[in-house]
Amino acid sequence: MISNSTETSSGRQMPALNWASIVFFGAIHALALLAPWFFSWSALGVMIFFHWLFGSIGICLGYHRLLTHRSFQVPKILEYAIALIGALALQGGPIFWVAGHRLHHVHTEDNEKDPYSARRGFWWSHMVWLLYDRPEFFNYEAYKKFAPDLAKDPFYRWLNRYFLLLQVPLSILLYIIGGWSFVIYGVFLRAVLLWHSTWLINSASHMMGYRTFPCNDNSRNLWWAAILTYGEGWHNNHHAYPNVAKAGFQWWEIDMTWWAIQVLRTLGLARRVVLPPPALKKAARN
Questions:
Q1: Using an 8 Å Cβ cutoff, are 248 and 231 in contact?
Q2: Taking the alpha carbons of 136, 139, 142, 146 in that order, is the dihedral positive or negative?
Q3: Residue 203, SS3 per DSSP
């Protein structure tokens, strides 16, 4: 499946592999494999907490529903704080992430224009797309055009450039608190597990599960992916109504990220929250 993805549908060869990306992802995965030798219950707790904080609040609520789709608004200082949490997830800067996801929605499953088209196979959409040098998706001057609202903001330009360096103070803090055990679990194992959780939405949620809405793509609602990603696995719902702040429409479609948005809403911090259309409002309130 991977070998087939090195050639485009038009017969053109894919660009060369990006060895810097291969070494980076390979090194993080290798360091995560050290986890059994550094196990402690407190380190496991740190990993679980950061998986939720960086994943649900940073990526799902922040990068995705707030910055990409603008499905609700918060005060600018809070928006910046949430984006900073998202940057700590180690999934790229906000301009890169938002631009790529907007392209995914505009050109869903197009082999050339969707950065992680599921039609190219599970592993391509899951992670292999990250290992090729494709300037249209990875060059700042190219992808910033798809997130102009963020690209004009100095804070987001700074965060997009230096997000990787945020792992340094985080690692130092974890080492001071709990030694190498906290670093291995809180940085490396957390990053790997959160990566694969997020990537499942690009891969598995376009290949298995049930469809509630007849979208012009193969997006699906996948319960176990929703659990791992705090609600993002209700992907067919999301593709049908991408600007809605809630991903789970039925009572059994648990959406933990929506719970966090509801807390912000109750506190008066989230406003202009986009709800499902009238026919689905009852389900959205469940």
A1: yes
A2: positive
A3: coil
In whole angstroms, how far apart are CA 216 and each of 54, 106, 220, 225? 31, 11, 12, 21
Using an 8 Å Cβ cutoff, are 258 and 230 in contact? Answer: no
Question: What do you get for the CA distance between the two ends of the chain, in Å?
Answer: 41
- For the entire predicted model, the pTM comes to 0.91
pLDDT value, residue 280: 64
Q: What is the DSSP string of 157-193?
A: HHHHHHGGGGHHHHHHHHHHHHHHHHHIIIIIIHHHH
Determine how many CB atoms are found less than 10 A away from the CB of residue 257.
Answer: 26
HEC string of 216-229 equals CCCCCECHHHHHHC
* Contact partners, residue 119, CB within 8 Å, separation at least 6: 109, 111
**Given phi > 0 = left and psi -120 to 50 = alpha, else beta, which region is 217?**
beta
273 token code pair: 């929250």
- pLDDT tens for each residue of 127-165: 999 999 998 999 999 999 999 999 999 999 999 999 999
Evaluate the CA torsion angle 78, 81, 86, 92 in order and state its sign.
Answer: positive
Could you give the CA distance from residue 13 to residue 281 in angstroms, rounded to a whole number? 47
pLDDT digits (tens, 9 = 90+) for 188-208: 999 999 999 999 999 999 999
Inter-helix orientation angle 41-52/190-202, to 10°: 40
Tracing tokens 């402690």 back to the chain, one arrives at 40
Eight-class DSSP state of 67: I
- Would you say the C-alpha torsion 236, 256, 282, 65 has a positive or negative sign? negative
Look at the alpha carbons of 244, 197, 53, 172 in this order and tell me if their dihedral is positive or negative: negative
